[in-house]
Amino acid sequence: MHLLSIDWWFLLEKLVLIMVIISLSLVIAMYTTYAERKVAAWLQDRRGPNRAGPWGILQPLADGGKLFFKEEIIPLVSSKFLFILGPSLAMITALLTSAVIPWGTSIHLFGREMPLQIADVNIGILYIFGVVSLGVYGIMIGGWASNNKFSLLAAIRAASQMISYELAMGLALIAVLMLAGSLQMSVIVQNQIDHGWHVIYQPLGFVIFFICALAECNRTPFDLAEAENELNFGYHQEYSSMKLGFYLFAEYINMFISSAVMATLFFGGYDIPFVNEASWGISPNLLALIGFAVLMAKIFFFLFVFIWIRWTIPRFRYDQLMNLGWKGLIPLSLANMVLTAVVMLILKKLN
């Protein structure tokens, strides 16, 4: 009787949505590597990849095939279980974050309402930070398991960098949570639909969050952990084949998910300004698809900015990186949080 009481259609809906989101993340991450090279070529007045398929669009498939068929090398002095666990953990944590992001409104099919969100938990922001924190272990384990001093030093750098910038990122988000009054991602999006995008009220919070996202994803100018002129190619120096591919792929998935989180928290997520079902007579299903397309457009814009910054700004020194995090961004985010609280208190008293 207990098995019969399970809503199997609900489980099937969630399973299909999980497969779609994971597949979408992998495809976008794969073609972000192509976009990286094409945007770099455009900025540097070059052609970029143009041999594999029309305009080089098959280049990511060629790169992936190369990684799959390259010889897999595991150093004899390494801890083999941890050596495999490191890139696996980096990949899994990169994908898990997508579970709480609302990708659109609900779709109505077969008399059922299917929300375009895998898990609408009431602690969505805490879930994201919990999963992101676990991503540090993927890098740290990979560097330590290699039994290579350069890999270990790079892993320690990466871990200290990510932990440092998570603090400023979390403090920057507290001001957003004050405005929304909830940790639930769907509520945060609805608050922006009702009262305007959070970036309007929290421009400093957004700038701090974006800088921290660059550091969390190990992107320029914060890519010291994998800088070949610093530490012999960083924490994944001893990796080859698809284990190296997992680390590289995880970076681009993190870029995609970070862009989705920024779009959701600060730019209304799937919200389309001045467009809603009542005023335009749009069917709920079409509105959900348009909202999803709008969210993807916002994500692609942030991905372009990520790539643009990589080929524009030089790499920081490590002392500059840590000074910016501890002496710059954390005090700024604290000041922003206090200022937001004071303004909200004043407005509450006036009303």
What proportion of the residues is helical, as a percent range? 55-70%
Classify the oligomer.
single chain
Count every helix, treating DSSP H or I runs of 4 or more residues as helices: 13
Can you tell me the overall shape? globular
Mean pLDDT: 86
Low-confidence stretches: none
Through-space gap between termini = 54 Å
Report the sheet with the most strands, covering strand number, pairing sense and barrel closure: 2 strands, antiparallel
Counting DSSP E segments of at least 2 residues, the number of strands comes to 2
Q: What is the CA-atom radius of gyration, in angstroms?
A: 21 Å
How many separate domains? Answer: 1
- Provide the structure class: mainly alpha
Q: Percent of residues in beta strands?
A: under 5%
- Biggest sheet, spatial arrangement of strands: 1-2
Order of helices and strands: HHHEEHHHHHHHHHH
Explain this structure.
With 351 residues, the chain is an all-alpha fold. Helix content is 69%, strand content 2%. It has one domain (71-350). The chain has 13 helices and two strands. The protein has a two-stranded antiparallel sheet. The longest helix is centred in the first third of the chain and has 36 residues, at 8-43. The relative contact order is 0.13.
